[in-house]
Amino acid sequence: MSDSASAAASYPTVPLLPMTVPAHEAEARSRSFHDVMAQRRTVRDYSTRPLPEGVIEWAVRTAATAPSGAHVQPWRFVVITDPERKRRLRVAAEAEEREFYAHRASPEWLAALAPIGTDWQKPFLEDAPAVIVVFEVHKGPGSPRPYYTKESVGISVGLLLATLHQAGLATLTHTPSPMKFLNEVCGRPPEERAAYVIPVGYPADDARVPDLQRKELDEVLIRL
Predict the structure, then answer these.
(1) Number of folded domains in the chain?
(2) Within a domain: 77
(3) How far, CA to CA in Å, does 2 sit from each of 14, 101, 112?
(4) CA 27/CA 24 separation, integer angstroms
(5) Edge-to-edge strand order for the sheet containing 130-137?
(6) Is position 48 within any domain?
(7) pTM above 0.70?
(8) Residue 81: C-alpha distances to residues 57, 166, 171, 186, 208 (Å)
(9) Angle, to 10 degrees, between the axis of helix 149-166 and the axis of helix 55-63?
(10) Domain residues for 192?
(11) DSSP SS3 for 131
């Protein structure tokens, strides 16, 4: 018996229902998706405009379709909309960021951040109508051991950002370090470790972003 046949006999399977795209449409669809995603930018200035009903839930559902090591799905998405909790989040994050910019970051790192114009102040954590804190779920009571946790969660966050952008919403990936304070702010157990803090909302009417250029295709694509 082949390995695949043996596996099929040992574990339940279902027929694959592939997404069928005619070959002559494949490039056009890829390009269309690229053209939308190429407009995505990290946004730090948010409107108070409320989010459409159900968008966050569908974005998280989409993120949770990501592949994961041994299909353990080691992610948790905590959505914060309560103003007081967002205030607590901002205060705690800014305390860590002040320390980072004053003492932890090397001169080289600060020089790399200079064109982006970031500093320790994080008003977007309060201004955005929602903040999604993404946790990696590690081994704990009643939970299986995860495999390739960071890789799995990273892929899921990519899908999350893409879905929110497709819905016309702006995002930012904030990664304060260390992040242990987020367990207290979000009321999460120690086996969950925060990985990303993602404000979500509509950009402010006067929002501006750095004039940055993405690398050309021949700088990132290698054919062998």
Answers:
(1) 1
(2) yes
(3) 18, 57, 52
(4) 7
(5) 75-80, 130-137, 192-201, 170-171
(6) no
(7) yes
(8) 13, 21, 15, 11, 24
(9) 140
(10) 60-203
(11) strand
* Neighbouring-strand partners of residue 203: 46
Percent of the chain predicted with pLDDT > 70: 96
CA distance 206 to 113: 22
Cα distances from 114 to residues 108, 111, 118, 208, in angstroms, run 10, 5, 7, 16
Asked if residue 221 is part of any domain, the answer here is: no
How high is the mean pLDDT in each 10-residue block of the chain (224 residues)?
A: 59 91 95 97 96 97 97 97 97 95 93 91 97 94 88 98 98 92 96 97 96 95 97
Please check whether residue 171 is in contact with residue 198, taking contact to mean a CB–CB distance below 8 angstroms: yes
CA angle at 95 for the pair 59 and 161, rounded to the nearest 5°: 15
- Residue 101 is given by DSSP the state I
Task: Report if residue 73 sits inside a domain.
Answer: yes
Question: For 187, left (φ over 0), alpha (ψ -120 to 50), or beta?
Answer: left
Check which CATH number belongs to the domain holding 80 and give it: 3.40.109.10
In angstroms and rounded to an integer, the radius of gyration of the C-alpha atoms of the chain is 20
- Which 8-state DSSP code applies to residue 146? P
Beta bridge partners of 76: 135
Q: Are 79 and 171 in contact (CB under 8 A)?
A: no
3-state secondary structure of 3: helix
For 192, the 3-state DSSP assignment is: strand
